Amino acid sequence: MYDFAIIGSGASGGRMAYELTAGGAKCVLIEAGRAFDRHSFPPGELGYSTQMFWGGGLEVSRDARFGFLRGKCLGGTSVVNQADLDRFDDLAWDDWRDRTGVDFFRTERMDPYYDELDRAIPHGEIPRSYYNRNAELFIQGFDKTGYHWKPIDRAQDDCKLDHGSDCIVCLGGCPRNAKQSTLVNAIPQAQALGLDLECEFDVERVEDRRTEVRLVGRQHGAQRELVARRAILAAGSLGNTALLLRSTDLARRLPALGRNFCCHPQYMTYGVHDEPVDAHKGALQSVQAHDRRLREAGIKIENVFAPPIATAMLLPGVGRAHHAQMRNFRHLACVEVAVRDEPLGTMKLGRGGKLIVDKPLSAADRAKIDEGLKLALATHEHARAKQIIRCDQGFGLHLMGGCPMGTDARTSVVASDFHLHGFDNLIAADSSIFPTAPGINPSFTIMALSLRASRELLAR
Q1: Which residues have a Cβ under 8 Å from the Cβ of 264 and sit 6 or more positions away?
Q2: How far is CA 73 from CA 15, 174, 225, 323, in A?
Q3: What is the tens place of the pLDDT at every residue in 9-49?
Q4: DSSP labels for 405-441?
Q5: What is the value of pTM for the model shown?
């Protein structure tokens, strides 16, 4: 029997699979999506969106105000994200500790885990000589707003920009294995140590039998069951919440299940320039805002871009007007606004077991979005864009909460030892346990929490 069955292979599941296997545990890693690699990633935006993301490329909130993106492939979202590595600061940890009573939510308690990952995962900044024009226009405009920016530290190892690499293709998996997803940096190493792998196995419910757990789902069109001593839920905010809600015997003992959903609501703005910007060429994302004033205001400003289908979905308008905007694709510069939203979202099951996400915005959230958009539009104006486009469609890439961590079982799902309240055989350490939105890219902290959880499990 397996010591651990790990459901989900992204930043948390992949990391825990490696750490636990390396520590001597017998583990199986379960992934609902397919196992692609750098030789088999589906080509083109349409190909990878439909084959490597849940919902055929996009899921939406109940009112369709927000679109959500999450990876469905071996390596999970770590394969399709931008691999930013940001540590949480005192502002984030202090808020979490105050809200939850969890004492290790402190910079000095989490830094050793960040430090260890820093040594284990190749990372670095894009050299200034490889910034594309989208980045240079951002810097030109943002400097004049009076705020500060910094290069992004990214989990990457030789993107071969000197060979003309266009990193926008890495949104569908990096063909050079430069992006340090768990598909590159954790799962193969764990397999070499004895990890078993089960792909295209969609776990539908979990049953707790006190001395073991039973996972029930479907694999390749047939019902499949698997038994392990313990299960690690690493399917992310939406995945973990849906799985537990479908496990009705568990769900009725977890009153806070489905609460505290948040997503750093994001909005794109575009500046149209006379000369081609070619934001889709070269290094996709090099810099971001780095300013204490914005941090305290709960506003994130980043320099990024989206491929053509996503851009078409974001740009406002229809018909000829929309077509005219898309004809400017090579002339578009982009500034993205995201905010540290209040954890007011909820999740529940609808007809057929489909997860329904309600994601309201508070008055404070709307005020942050308005302030962030003003700054983004000013950045375009200072960069001398001839036209500025504000996109009203919101989206979320950082999906958090649903199984928040805390010391009170009435208001949280996961205890401070990473076990679900009342269940010794069920563990979670991914973004579903976030009590609030940190206002910082969550990927590095998901890995750090997962490393901490692995060490605690091995020590028992």
Answers
A1: 300, 338, 339, 340, 341, 396, 397, 398, 400, 437, 439
A2: 15, 13, 20, 33
A3: 999 999 999 999 999 999 999 999 999 999 999 999 999 99
A4: B-S-TTT-SB-TTSBBTT-TTEEE-SGGG-SS--SS-
A5: 0.96
